[in-house]
Amino acid sequence: MSFTIEERGKPNTLDYRVFFRNTEGKHVSPFHDIPIYADEAQNIFHAVVEVPRWTNAKMEIATKDPLNPLKQDIKKGNLRYVANVFPHKGYIWNYGAIPQTWEDPGHKDADTGCCGDNDPIDICDIGYKVCSRGEVIKVKVLGTLALIDEGETDWKVIVINMEDPEANNFNNIDDVRRLKPGYLEATFEWFKKYKVPDGKPENQFAFNGEFKDRDFALKTVKETHEFWKSLISKKTNAGELNCSICVFTEASLSSQLKQFYLCFYRVFSTKTVLFVFLQSSQLKQFYLCFYRVFSTKTVLFVFLQSLLN
């Protein structure tokens, strides 16, 4: 399974977006449609690279936007860049997220005492390769760090790209200490201080900043996958999150939706992409619930939802 990206707008601008396509050329959501597992039996996961190593632009999956493209975070109307934390330049790993996971803001973690941050779970890829923005890689989980970011649990899962020539030598967090001495200490210091140049206090951590091992990290990732399942099945309130792309998978359709199946039309040209999603919940009346046009290359999303009893 492979994915390609489609960039729209210019980097370092407010309208810059990175969309994803599958092998059939259809647009997919990196939040909902890319499978969590590359090899479930071996606990190998997919990861979406949001920020390549040594770069500063804080790109992230736009969880509230249709199709959930990558976009640059904005604070007070300005594009957000992470400051260099001496002696490092930008992010010190390939930074990204595991798809089909969600840190539930309504769930108070028993270990951290804080609720989730409402995002997919983050990864730090320690492999040798500097990945590209939007690259989907296969990773092995090694451990995790429990960052407490402004009162929210924000797990940072330490992983290694399976394409790394030394991947077979890394199987747990102690292997990182042994084979990459100083890397975990630098990771802790980076997350502790990266907001200080913006006038914020140092970040706090659960477990006194101790990195938890592979088994703990796997349990945490799988737990966030269960939270995500609850999100798309509407057992959990989605709030402002956009989960509309989930109607593409039959597993995500409720029994009510199955009686009125997905209708999907795709019209493509160099300047126009039209997506029409037809979703039935309780068959009653049709109404337009979403319309969006953005960027110089027009992208029109029309969501039709019917409520029939």
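(the above was protein one; protein two follows)
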Amino acid sequence: MCWEAGASTLFPKISAGTSRLSSVSLRSSSSRIIEVIPETSPALVSAQWLKERFFDTSGDLISQENNIRVNGAQHHPLILLDANWQLELDFDGYEKHYKGGHIPGAVFFDLDALGSLQSGSQQDYPIPDPSQFERFVSELGVTKDTHVITYDSTNTRSAARVWFLFRLFGHDRVSVLDGGLRRWLEEGHQVCTSDCQGACQPDQSRASGSSVSPTSARPFRAVLRSSMLRNFAEMLEILETEEAQIIDCRPEACLTETDSSVVTDIDSSVMTPATTSTGHPSIGYIPGAINIPFTNFVTSEGTLKSEEELYLVFESSGVDLSVPAVVYCQEGKTSCTVALAAFMCGIRNLPIYMGSWAEWSKLAPSSLIATKKKV
């Protein structure tokens, strides 16, 4: 065994709720989201759900070579993706997070490798093209039949980005581990570290789901759902026609004139200086946008709020979920958390403005850059 025991201190139990997905419940008491059906996967799964599906009673990884049965129901093989990422220049999630401790069997998912700057693009973190995404996830061991579970250590932000990307490219068997690594540790589960004689390397032979027999696995094929994205021209049209609500999910200080340099869309609410990770100004917003900081959608324990609470977050901020909407953030990642929250409220495909503020601040005329006056 190369695993270390996780933290044993438990936070208060998450309030119970129900999923809007019609599904077969495996358990009913340990978490609000611990359901699964063979062909449609839930948006959220609990740490307990993952433990029961990924590990046997002795703590060893369960083989994911074929579809497996849980409580008599047939289910798809799993792959667990560690998606830790932070808004920092030259941030190395593999070195800083993955090697420092990850859930056994997890494969590191490098978001930066899929979001590199493109020549001529004004986007800091562009959406990859379908062939790039298809090749990238196939090399990790993902097939058409794989149920992808993704997690991070920071309020689901980067895990939600991975969830969104898989759905964007036509793969609906994808779930976010509710509460991520933090919740996993709080429930006393194990982690693997770089001290485990190389076991932390993202070796495809150890990737759960990557060892599916080539004769039985159907290859992953990326098919772009363009309706889940909005570009700069489409945002201009939305402003002109007022055909959709615009949600800005950055901290409020990003919208407000200030003499000091503060904040971008990060997990804490303050960052210096007031620029994106690639150096672009962060202060200002798209005229008419409704501000809902993405942290409003998560609890202090790092889990997504209940569906009832999520709905109230939208409603109390002035967003009508029965009316079309689009969400943006600083660079296109945090907005995926809002898309996940909307999904839990029954809005399956809330589109994101892929260029977000980083692009808008460079392309839009000054008349279309609004700021709030500092009080």
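Reviewer note on protein two: The two ends are 57 Å apart (CA to CA).
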